[in-house]
Amino acid sequence: MMKAVSTVIALVILSSVTQAQWMFMRQDGDTILREGVRAIYNVEFKKASEKFKQVIALYPEHPAGYFMDAMIDWWRILLNQRSTRYDQQFLSKIDRVLAKCDELLSAEPKNITALFFKGGALGFRGRYYAVRQQFVEAASVGKEGMEILRELQKIAPTNHDIMLGTGVYNYYAAALPERYPLLKPVMLFLPRGDKKLGILQLKAAGNQARYAAVEAKAQLMAILYNDEKKPSEAIVYARELTQQYPNNPYFARYLGRCLVQLGPLDSMEMVWRTLLLGYMDKKEGYDEFTAREALYYIGTVQMLKGNYDIALKYLYKCDEASRLVDKEMSGFMVKANLKIGQIYDVQGKRDLAISQYKKVAGWRDYDGTQDEAARYIAKPYGR
Length: 383
Description:
Order of helices and strands: HHHHHHHHHHHHHHHHHHH
Largest sheet: none
Oligomer: single chain
Number of helices: 19
Strand content: under 5%
Number of strands: 0
Distance between the termini: 86 Å
CATH topology of the largest domain: Serine Threonine Protein Phosphatase 5, Tetratricopeptide repeat
Number of domains: 2
Structural class: mainly alpha
């Protein structure tokens, strides 16, 4: 009996110590940190930077402020993945986080806070390499980060913030070799992934994580839409995140894309018009690629509503924007021109329609556009 009581007391003490260590700093720092995190997701980067400077000033030896400061640049990269403007700055900030963590770990090898932020920093470096399609580097960094997170799970098995990292690793360690078979030999030397487990871990983090909930939901949204092809599930997260962070075009774009597949047309058009206005108002994160996508989908809606002259204006603007922003021909440009041909056919302007179809037939194929164009050359669209 005494042994059992001693065991229970020991477990309670261990639990209390673990929870205390997970409280990264006192309430003042935690409050400021949360305000900065919200500012990041709402694309208020200047405000976020000021908050994290305050955290760093209060706790210069703690990695939290440095880590979240790196997340500002991560989101700048995520909002416009074609730009490399912030790449080096992001990597330098991640190096600073790792240095702070290693300082703590040199004095205390099992320091939970240092292990947490080191695992997180390595995880985001791995995600950066994946965005840049440097998959060997991503796998190598991911392995190191995953080992740290597994060690943390042993120490604090009920902590849901850890599940962001384990969830992302488990999903992509299984998904990427399926998508890129050349990666299979590399993955033989890494822990096996499990897509279903990864999604479950991300859902758990999204529902219960203290710091990583929004990031987990954002990752789930992207996975469900891009990889799992489940827009009806992705839209749940896209709608929630867009409502919480209305200034974030990353969330709004996913909501708009889900609505393209699911409808209704009016909701779809409203989202894309809001995105286009954000670009016209020069809001941060609303780039020319967002505007081009918005032009295409607004034109598509107008076409489906039978407002052909208005649709032509948007689709021609989409074509014009594509020629400015893309070095190579894009799917938006090809499909916009195909739709322009279809509208001319409906309007009875057969010569103009055939001219459009011939262009599309000679361009790069996107989802069967060449076959469609050839079919409409032989037989007018809609007949």
